TrEMBL record:
<dbReference type="InterPro" id="IPR005791">
    <property type="entry name" value="SecD"/>
</dbReference>
<dbReference type="Pfam" id="PF21760">
    <property type="entry name" value="SecD_1st"/>
</dbReference>
<dbReference type="GO" id="GO:0005886">
    <property type="term" value="C:plasma membrane"/>
</dbReference>
<feature type="transmembrane region" description="Helical">
    <location>
        <begin position="476"/>
        <end position="498"/>
    </location>
</feature>
<dbReference type="Pfam" id="PF22599">
    <property type="entry name" value="SecDF_P1_head"/>
</dbReference>
<dbReference type="InterPro" id="IPR054384">
    <property type="entry name" value="SecDF_P1_head"/>
</dbReference>
<feature type="domain" description="Protein export membrane protein SecD/SecF C-terminal">
    <location>
        <begin position="435"/>
        <end position="599"/>
    </location>
</feature>
<feature type="domain" description="SecD export protein N-terminal TM">
    <location>
        <begin position="1"/>
        <end position="96"/>
    </location>
</feature>
<dbReference type="Pfam" id="PF02355">
    <property type="entry name" value="SecD_SecF_C"/>
</dbReference>
<comment type="function">
    <text>Part of the Sec protein translocase complex. Interacts with the SecYEG preprotein conducting channel. SecDF uses the proton motive force (PMF) to complete protein translocation after the ATP-dependent function of SecA.</text>
</comment>
<dbReference type="GO" id="GO:0006605">
    <property type="term" value="P:protein targeting"/>
</dbReference>
<comment type="similarity">
    <text>Belongs to the SecD/SecF family. SecD subfamily.</text>
</comment>
<dbReference type="GO" id="GO:0015450">
    <property type="term" value="F:protein-transporting ATPase activity"/>
</dbReference>
<keyword id="KW-0812">Transmembrane</keyword>
<feature type="transmembrane region" description="Helical">
    <location>
        <begin position="575"/>
        <end position="599"/>
    </location>
</feature>
<feature type="domain" description="Protein translocase subunit SecDF P1">
    <location>
        <begin position="223"/>
        <end position="279"/>
    </location>
</feature>
<dbReference type="InterPro" id="IPR022813">
    <property type="entry name" value="SecD/SecF_arch_bac"/>
</dbReference>
């Protein structure tokens, strides 16, 4: 009964692999709260029809935040994506995807096909470019806020002047004030070259970032974005991803077997951060305050907050979304030591004042510019960013805050969950835009993949022929067990969500050859027992029992090697280790239990004088 149940489940969970995915285009909103309706899908479908691209079907996601358009041919994915992107505009994320065709009754029990690696049916490939100019600007803004705080703490009167690129400017009324400011700034910061100038009756101190600091900012921005992208990929739960730098300002991301490329694209490229600022006091100078709208509107008038920043989302070490006592979404924040110190210092002396939490989002847009191409001026689209800041929370400080607190005022649980994910994964040091996006086909070509499948079939037939020639009827039993082993292996890989790669197919071929090792040991032992003169039934019993220890030892050592390969290897090595390790587990079951059950059912308990072995 155990064997029947296991085999039935194996067939059930291996069955979805017979249903290939449809090439598709997935549409979602640029914001986590934006919904997709049939109207958007109809617009996209009509645009595709006008472009001569055949559509197989459309569907709206269960959560209403995404839509799927199934295509007939995979070769039409890229042109279809371009057509839909032009039709819907910048407010939608349009990405290539593969739509499952597994029947609903299989999906209802958690059955799905294996994830295939980039070298088989692909996944998605992104090439992201870091906006280094923006990285420098962001760092200059941070330095500006810090220098202002330093001058105020030293009680040095100054006047803020507009920045010039990577140069900060501060005006002073007297030489004495300028010299004092120069001394305290030089003692705290070695990132600037300090120069002096006169302007409109003021003594101006100019702080210009050094070349070494500029190089360090660029290098840090790329490393920080690389770490953040890796963390976000891990949050997405993608199997065997590839995330690596390319050149001085680019990052390559390959996501094999990804199911939601639109969501992946939106999360990977999104720049979300927080700023914590005090609410502006009445009659505060206009130069020291800024005005922002509330996120989502809510019919509330804009609010004024101080320009000085208490801290940003970079100091967040953990963020979890849940619900407050009234059932509204919130995000629980934990800060690092420095962030907790800044928050304590700011709130200790401002109890009773308001503190605003600003949500910062940078959306990628396309702008048309005139550019010379092949000696002629042409209008081309170039990527650009629009920064949007809005208030998500403005609450009165009731007591001194430390390194743990919560953010409320979010529109939906989805928005709270996404904000927590982005903060938990780490903020981007600078915005990134997608310079290349494509679905990866078989990297070794369809011919090599077909050869891999053929190798599996030839290996299986060669083993079966050998077993039948050497062990006759028992060889047929071993062949049946080997077939069931392959079904169980596919089912286990599908159930665990393992990624099948081309080296993984090599692991399957090797597993098929190794799986009959146990049967060879058992059948050879049975032959030896019969040759020594014992009865057939006794020989069968001794053959299975006495061969078990050798089978167990041999498979455990191989399994140990497979685990080490998986733990220490990467890429193709891991794909090979997965199929090898899982194949050993399934072969132990099929070669010992299934084979013994079939032998017992066919000749067990009978008065047989001679075996056809």
């Amino acid at each position: 009964m155990l064997i029947v149940v296991v085999l039935a489940l194996g067939v059930l969970y291996a069955l979805p692999n017979l249903y290939p995915d449809d090439p598709a285009i997935q549409i979602s909103g640029s914001s986590s709260t934006q919904t997709i309706s049939e109207a958007e899908l109809d617009r996209a479908r009509n645009a595709l029809a006008g472009a001569g691209i055949e559509v197989k079907g459309t569907e709206v996601g269960s959560n209403g935040r995404s839509g799927l358009i199934r295509l007939v041919s995979q070769s039409q994915q890229l042109p279809a994506q371009d057509v839909i992107r032009r039709e819907l505009g910048q407010d939608y994320v349009v990405a290539q995807n593969l739509a499952p065709t597994t029947p609903d009754w299989l999906r209802s029990i958690g059955a799905g096909p294996m994830k295939l690696g980039l070298d088989l049916s692909g996944g998605v490939h992104f090439l992201l470019e870091v906006d280094m100019d923006r990285a420098v600007t962001n760092r200059v803004n941070v330095y500006e806020s810090e220098v202002r705080s330093l001058l105020r703490s030293e009680r040095i009167r100054y006047r803020s002047l507009p920045n010039q690129g990577n140069t900060l400017q501060f005006g002073f009324e007297t030489d004495e004030q300028l010299n004092r400011a120069r001394g305290v700034i030089a003692a705290q910061y070695n990132q600037f070259q300090l120069t002096e100038a006169s302007r409109e009756g003021l003594e101006v101190l100019r702080l210009t970032l050094t070349d070494a600091e500029m190089a360090e900012i660029r290098e840090y921005s790329l490393r920080q974005n690389l770490t953040t992208v890796r963390n976000r990929v891990n949050e997405l739960g993608v199997a065997e991803p590839l995330v690596q730098r390319q050149g001085a300002n680019r990052i390559v991301v390959e996501l094999p077997g990804v199911q939601d490329t639109a969501e992946a694209k939106r999360i990977l490229g999104k720049t979300a951060n927080l700023e914590f600022r005090l609410a502006a006091e009445p009659n505060a100078p206009r130069a020291t305050v800024e005005t922002f709208e509330f996120r989502g509107g809510e019919g509330r008038p804009p609010a004024e907050v101080e320009r000085s920043i208490i801290l940003t989302g970079d100091q967040v070490t953990d963020a979890q979304s849940n619900f407050d006592e009234n059932g509204r979404p919130q995000v629980n924040i934990r800060l690092d030591g420095h962030g907790g110190e800044l928050m304590t210092r700011a709130t200790r002396n401002n109890i009773g004042r308001g503190m605003a939490v600003l949500f910062i989002e940078q959306r990628q847009i396309s702008r048309e510019v005139e550019k010379e191409v092949d000696g002629q001026m042409q209008t081309v689209e170039v990527p650009a960013f629009v920064e949007e800041k809005s208030i998500i929370s403005l609450a009165t400080i009731q007591s001194t805050l430390g390194n743990q607190f919560r953010i409320t005022g979010l529109d939906s649980p989805a928005e709270a969950s996404e904000l927590a994910l982005l903060l938990r994964a780490g903020g981007l040091a600078a915005p990134m835009y997608f310079v290349e996006e494509r679905t990866i086909g078989p990297s070794l070509g369809a011919e090599n993949i077909a050869k891999g499948v053929t190798a599996t079939q030839v290996g299986f037939l060669a083993v079966l022929v050998f077993m039948v020639i050497v062990y006759k009827a028992f060889g047929i039993i071993a062949g049946v067990a080997l077939s069931l082993n392959l079904v169980l292996l596919l089912a286990l890989m599908s159930l665990l969500g393992a990624t099948l790669t081309l080296p993984g197919i090599a692991g399957i071929v090797l597993t098929l050859g190794m799986a009959v090792d146990a049967n060879v040991l058992i059948f050879s032992r049975i032959k030896e027992e019969i040759s020594s003169g014992v009865s057939v039934q006794r020989a069968l019993h001794e053959g299975f029992d006495k061969a078990f220890s050798a089978i167990l030892d041999g498979n455990l050592t191989t399994l140990l090697v497979g685990v080490i390969l998986f733990a220490m290897g990467s890429g193709p090595v891991k794909g090979f280790a997965v199929t090898l390790s899982l194949g050993i587990i399934t072969s132990m079951f099929s070669a010992i239990m299934v084979t013994r059950a079939m032998v017992n059912l066919s000749v067990g308990g009978r008065d047989i004088k001679k075996l056809w072995l």
